[in-house]
Design goal:
- By secondary structure, the protein is α/β, with parallel strands linked by helices.
- It has one domain (3-196): Vaccinia Virus protein VP39 (Rossmann fold, 3-Layer(aba) Sandwich).
- It has helices spanning 3-17, 25-37, 52-58, 73-85, 120-127, 158-175, and strands at 42-46, 65-70, 92-96, 108-113, 131-139, 180-185, 191-196.
- It has a seven-stranded mixed β-sheet with strand order 3-2-1-4-5-7-6, with helices on both faces.
Length: 197
């Protein structure tokens, strides 16, 4: 096993132990092959967590640059450590802040939303002007562990019901958007791919 793979597995283990949500295997494979196929070079990621998806995206091609935003200090510091292990500090720029407080003027081929599920519409609206004309917005957790397809009364907790409602609102927002068209793939935890019509 290569040393890179060992480090990736350590990140996954840490995420599991600390109960930090990172992308499922199927989801990360879909995302990285999408980046490769569409020759994506500039990525804005909302929700770094511990840097796992940023590292996996950066590893697709040495031309890729990522700006990633995280508001949780513990996760942000862990992400810095992980990104250093892969010598990717010059290609992954970390911003420690609440994404909705961050103003960016750059344009990106891909905006990847993987942060607080209840704020997806706000993230979309806040950053859509940073999307290149032919760029893509990808959002993870559209299925939210299968809860989105359940009847509301089957969902065990009030908190989860609230998140599911917000995800459904976001799906409605995407499906009824006149500027963008969206395809939702039942891959990993559900992935939405949005592009201009």
């Amino acid at each position: 096993m290569s040393s890179e793979l060992i480090e990736i597995n350590k990140i996954k283990e840490y995420a599991k132990e600390e109960n930090i949500p990172i992308m499922q295997e199927e989801g990360i494979e879909f995302l990285t092959s999408f980046i490769e196929k569409k020759q994506i070079k500039n990525i804005l990621e909302i929700g770094t967590a511990i840097g796992y998806s940023a590292i996996m995206m950066a590893k697709v091609n040495s031309d890729i640059h990522i700006t990633t935003i995280e508001r949780d200090e513990t996760r942000y510091l862990e992400a810095i450590k992980n990104i250093k292990k892969f010598n990717l500090e010059n290609r992954i720029t970390l911003i420690f802040n609440d994404a909705l407080n961050v103003e960016i003027s750059d344009k990106y081929d891909l905006i990847f939303i993987d942060a607080a599920k209840g704020k997806n519409i706000e993230f979309f609206n806040h950053f859509e002007n940073n999307l290149d004309m032919d760029g893509y917005i990808i959002t993870d957790n559209m299925g939210f562990h299968g809860y989105v397809e359940m009847n509301e009364d089957e969902i065990p907790s009030k908190n989860i019901r609230g998140i599911v409602r917000k995800i459904k609102d976001y799906i409605y927002f995407l499906e009824n958007n006149m500027v963008y068209k969206t395809t939702i793939y039942k891959i990993g935890d559900g992935i939405a791919v949005t592009e201009r019509r």
